[in-house]
């Protein structure tokens, strides 16, 4: 997965350190990364839970495999 936008990352690193422009670009970059993080967490949260191992019997008590 790409980190925000390549242009956004390049712009954030090109401004002179300590300037208002640099601070604004870093804030935009952080917001973009936070949005991507939230999107990934939403996707992971929508996954169904894995089935539990069988509790008795000869099959399915040691290894949980399914297609």
Provide structural commentary:
The mean pLDDT is about 80. Helix 1 packs antiparallel against helix 2. The two termini are about 25 Å apart. This protein is an all-alpha fold and about 70 residues long. The longest helix has 26 residues. It has a domain of about 40 residues. The chain contains two helices and no strands.
Short description:
Pfam families: YjfB_motility (PF14070). The protein is an all-alpha fold and 67 residues long. It is built from 2 helices and no strands.
Q: What would the keywords be for this entry?
A:
67 residues, mainly alpha, Motility protein, YjfB_motility, 52% helix, rod-shaped
Shape: rod-shaped
How much helix is in the residues?
A: 40-55%
Mean pLDDT: 78
The count of helical stretches stands at 2
What is the number of strand segments? Answer: 0
Main sheet: strands, sense, barrel: none
Task: Report how far apart the termini are.
Answer: 26 Å
> What amount of the residues lies in strands?
under 5%
What is the N-to-C succession of helices and strands? HH
Radius of gyration: 22 Å
The unreliable regions are none
Alpha-beta content class? mainly alpha
Protein name: Motility protein
Region (Disordered): 1-20
InterPro entries: YjfB_motility
Biased composition (Polar residues): 7-19
């Amino acid at each position: 997965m790409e980190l925000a936008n390549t242009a956004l990352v390049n712009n954030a690193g090109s401004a002179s350190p300590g300037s208002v422009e640099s601070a604004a670009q870093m804030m935009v970059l952080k917001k973009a990364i936070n949005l991507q993080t939230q999107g990934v967490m939403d996707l992971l949260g929508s996954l169904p839970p894995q089935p539990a191992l069988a509790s008795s019997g000869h099959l399915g008590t040691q290894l949980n495999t399914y297609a």
